[in-house]
Amino acid sequence: xxxxxxxxxxxxxxxxxTLTLNRPAALNSFTTAQHVELRAALDAAAEDAAVRCxxxxxxxxxxxxxxxxxxxxVAPSTDGRAAGxxxxxxxxxxxxLVLRLQSMPVPxxxxxxxxxxxxxxxxxxxxxFVVAARSASFIQAxxxxxxxxxxxxxxxxxxxxxxxxxxxxxxxxxKLPAEEAERIGLIWRCVDDAQLGAEVQALAQRLAAMPTKAxxxxxxxxxxxxxxxxxxxxxxxxxxxGELAGAADYREGVATxxxxxxxxxxxx
Length: 268
Known about the structure:
2-enoyl-CoA Hydratase, Chain A, domain 1, four-stranded mixed sheet
């Protein structure tokens, strides 16, 4: 009996765990089964002390086209009443996925190798870094089917590119080329297609060698500071510095700075 192909491929190279969405014929659009496999793979990476960076990418010619609209769970109602299925899918799968990505104990890179549309775009943007191939694109496709951005889109877009651009992207739903996405600050970097794998691996290996606990604390502090005044942000920085200064990575960092040698960070 032939086993079905995994919906999420898992590969580990040194301290970098790569998770590849594996429904290429459907541009890796999400089904319930793929959500379950991805969450399990992220949880496993979070629990594995040997993993110090995670890369999320897609198989074939797309990163992720969002929700698979052929799924009966998100079918429109036929009587004009609110359809509870799509809300249930969001609450049971997309919301926990976004929160899992934001709470990963290691940095996460989205390697966008093609179209990232709808929830697929916002899941990529949730990651700490987005590196995209030059041929890739980002599409807030929600209004095209009469919906609003989800998977954190309404929270992410104004913070990344400002309200005016966020409104244009969300309401018009136009395709945004990766090069333009980099120019307006939506993503970290756009690279030539042939260089995507090498660029992502170089960044992942660099992050894996850095003080992981400090990187994750930096993510959390940047997000939290968006809701604080300056005085509260300064106080939060002080508290975190006090905590991190008691960790092994701080001792290693200071020792290597003074000794002028390469550090070996171990905290996670």
